[in-house]
Design a protein that fits this description.
Layout lengths: L2 H29 L2 E5 L2 E4 H14 L8 H22 L11 H14 L5 H9 L5 H22 L7 H10 L7 E11 L4 H17 L2 H8 L10 E6 L5 H8 L10 E3 L2 E13 L5 H30 L3 E3 L1
Helix pairs in contact: 2-3, 3-6, 4-6, 6-11, 7-11, 8-9
Length: 319
């Protein structure tokens, strides 16, 4: 074979490969559809499939649902994320931030909840859902930046009466000896009237009974814990309000409460585990802990209020 023939042959092979790859690329593009537009951001069918894998990795009970149901949960989750991201980017340059240390702490908490002992185990687990640790970190970064944004906007509106907390500790003789420590999950939802409250409560309970509490949290909860199946983690009884503490006393492990009114929303709580613990804390340490709990509660409330506000001002078009 002379040089001209070799060159023509190589050109033919090159052309064929380019054509083949380009055809495959076009075919893949044709299968990707724009599903939702949130202001100037788009959500594609591929985005929703990725979100479905992400949510299922965090909550295996989603496998009990039909694909169409998981698809809808993922779509709602992504709309919420896009609204938050668009708002964050008005104030913060997301690309130039280095939050690895904080994100790694959150990652560790997640894989511990899922029953893994190391980062490498978690990475292998994510591989089965076609997810990478970098992609998970990017999603967690949005939630973390959102919380930072809320903290910055509302820090001057946090109202905590330290003297009142101290008097409560003294009056009720609060201590951390032989106290109950709960591992809890939550579903927070809103309802405009009694009819809507009854309807949503029935839907939530049916989902819990037919699949799991975690799936119901994914589907219905407006809390930031929704993507994690509503898991709050460990909370001791002194960290809870009286009404919640009383409700928990009436249910057993793996049971859940009826809706509890909390401001403009409603709360359903499930007990995952329950233990009796002893902590050696003086009064000042108790005050500090309870201030931290109250501050977190107020920030969470402001987070819901602010999100609902910007959602109303966002243009959401399902295509």
């Amino acid at each position: 074979m002379n040089n001209n023939k070799i060159i023509r042959y190589l050109l033919f092979i090159t052309f064929f490969l380019i054509f083949y790859l380009y055809s495959g690329f076009l075919s893949a593009l044709q299968n990707i559809k724009i599903i939702v537009k949130v202001d100037n951001s788009i959500i594609t069918s591929e985005d929703i499939n990725f979100e479905s894998n992400y949510l299922t990795a965090l909550n295996k009970d989603l496998n009990k649902l039909k694909k169409e149901e998981v698809y809808e949960i993922a779509k709602v989750s992504l709309i919420k994320e896009k609204i938050k991201r668009n708002e964050i980017e008005k104030y913060i340059d997301i690309q130039n931030l280095d939050n690895d240390e904080l994100i790694n702490d959150i990652i560790k908490d997640i894989y511990k909840r899922l029953g893994f002992e190391s980062n490498s185990e978690f990475k292998s687990y994510l591989d089965t859902f076609e997810l990478s640790l970098i992609e998970v970190k990017e999603k967690l970064n949005i939630e973390m930046l959102w919380n930072q944004l809320i903290a910055g906007k509302y820090k001057n509106r946090i109202n905590i009466d330290e003297d009142k907390i101290r008097k409560k500790i003294q009056k009720e003789k609060i201590n951390y000896q032989n106290i109950i420590e709960y591992d809890l999950s939550e579903i927070i939802f809103s309802a405009k009237n009694t009819k809507e409250l009854n309807f949503k409560t029935t839907e939530i309970k049916n989902t819990i009974d037919n699949t799991s509490f975690e799936t119901a949290a994914n589907r219905f909860s407006i809390s930031d814990t929704a993507n994690f199946g509503g898991n709050i983690g460990k909370v001791n009884e002194n960290q809870l309000s009286k009404i919640i503490k009383d409700e928990l006393k009436n249910i057993d492990i793996n049971d859940y409460t009826d809706p509890i009114s909390i401001g403009n929303s409603f709360l359903i709580i499930k007990i995952n585990k329950k233990d009796v613990i002893n902590l050696e804390l003086d009064e000042n340490e108790m005050v500090k802990r309870m201030i931290g709990i109250e501050r977190k509660r107020q920030y969470e409330n402001f987070s819901l209020i602010y999100y609902n506000k910007i959602k109303l001002n966002s243009q959401i078009d399902e295509l």
